[in-house]
Amino acid sequence: MQTTRHTLVLTAGQPSGWVRDLECQAWSIATALPTHELRRTLDANVLTCVVVDFTHGFDNDAHAALERLLALPNVGAVGLVAPGQLEDPPVRHLAVDHCFDVLSMPASPAQLTLSIAYAFDMLESRMHERDIDGNLLLRAGLKGGHQVHAEGSMIGSCEAMVALFRSIRKVARTDAPVFISGESGTGKELTAREIHERSARRNRPFVAINCGAIPPHLLQSELFGYERGAFTGANQRKIGRVEAATGGTLFLDEIGDLPFESQASLLRFLQEKKLERVGGNQLHDIDVRIIAATHIDMPAAIESGRFRADLFHRLCVLRIDEPPLRARGTDIELLARRMLDRYRSDSQRMVRGFAPDAIAALYTYPWPGNVRELINRVRRAIVMSDRPFITADDLDLGDYADRSTVSLAEAREEADRDVIQMALLRNRGSLSKAAIDLRISRVTLTRLLRARGMSAADFRSSRDAR
Ligand SMILES: Nc1ncnc2c1ncn2[C@@H]1O[C@H](COP(=O)(O)OP(=O)(O)OP(=O)(O)O)[C@@H](O)[C@H]1O
Ligand SMILES: [Mg+2]
């Protein structure tokens, strides 16, 4: 684990006043340009913040060497520039593309300290980024959004996502049907594609059908195709989507919206692995792997008779649940920064990061539209923002920026209350039984309840009271 931190100031001239003082804080200052020796001093096991003082200028060779140095995975940079210096393309390129933060001089030592702390935070958060294979991206020597992930690949490092990645790898090894459930925008389609890409079928087609978007009367022929003359206008045979996926994966998206009348023929196909084109009289063997997904509550759909239970059981042999974005902890910020990296070039201006109120809003907003909504808000903010740091207002989340914070004591109190309530509910208001569950005495439980204005009687149901 890389935990040691080192700060290095690089300058082509004499560091001015307070920058020189930084040496007293055990930071090192190098007036030499980043030569091979310097590179060697940047130990790969140490997180290094390089403060690049552009104010004295660097020559072209130095620029090239700097670029290589700043691209090292364990290096995070803060640039110091003189007013107007960012108009110089080589400086702008290094400062904007390679520095986590840029300070216009004269800046205060406090500002620099903050920027350095930010650079270390960014380096650390990138250290924990994993790709779907569980590789630590930074350790693998990869840094920077677009360089790391191909468009569309999954990002996540929270426990729920690591578990999801594990499930993807496991189910990819089999041919059994997979059912993916999750709120809208959580990444169900992306997951289906990852399963396909990781399976032995990866070189065969991945065919996605949105079961809710095709009119019911066309669904049959869309899925199974038709023979010439099957109906007016059927001038030639058409292969259906199921057949088009032969050898590969058929992704039945929004399966919960599949019209009831089409469910029987899909079930038949799943049972027999044979299809009959509309207007045809021959059965064709088809080898496809089925992945289905929906955002609707399937047990409720089955209960209300909108979805056949037997079809659901055929589809749901292996199950994957996509965690909602609000349950992904710091992944929310990780994704936001990734999307900023990916789309920052949409703006003519330099958008460097998120202001603290935007970060607060990212964590308090409940994200009903999940990752898709996050992407849309960040993209919009990149275009709308006229400052270097995206604010909560730019994300259109101003109302979520000023939520009062919760102290540890408040959080603990809330947790205590929840646990006590659960124990009382489970034991229908019995103090003695709840106290045993909570492994405290009955007297202590009574005291805790009194302190919170709670009463065990509230947890006795009317039937028990009788
Ligand atoms: N973990 C992730 N990392 C990176 N991008 C993601 C991740 N999850 C989702 N996305 C992106 O979010 C968007 C929505 O994902 P996707 O279409 O797979 O969601 P969905 O669950 O199928 O949504 P819907 O229910 O609305 O169809 C896509 O642009 C996808 O690339
Ligand atoms: Mg989808």
UniProtKB/TrEMBL annotation:
Isomerase in keyword set: no
Keyword hit for ATP-binding: yes
Q: Which SMART domains match?
A: AAA
Q: Where is the Sigma-54 factor interaction domain?
A: 154-383
So which domain of life are we looking at?
Answer: Bacteria
Record's keyword terms, sorted = ATP-binding, Nucleotide-binding, Transcription, Transcription regulation
UniProt xrefs under Pfam families: AAA_lid_14 (PF25601), HTH_8 (PF02954), Sigma54_activat (PF00158), VpsR (PF20161)
Q: Name one GO molecular function term.
A: ATP binding
Q: InterPro entries under this entry?
A: AAA+_ATPase, AAA_lid_NorR, Homeodomain-like_sf, HTH_Fis, P-loop_NTPase, Sigma_54_int, Sigma_54_int_dom_CS, VpsR
Gene Ontology annotations of biological process type = regulation of DNA-templated transcription
* Protein name from the UniProt record: Fis family transcriptional regulator
Q: Which organism is it from?
A: Paraburkholderia acidicola
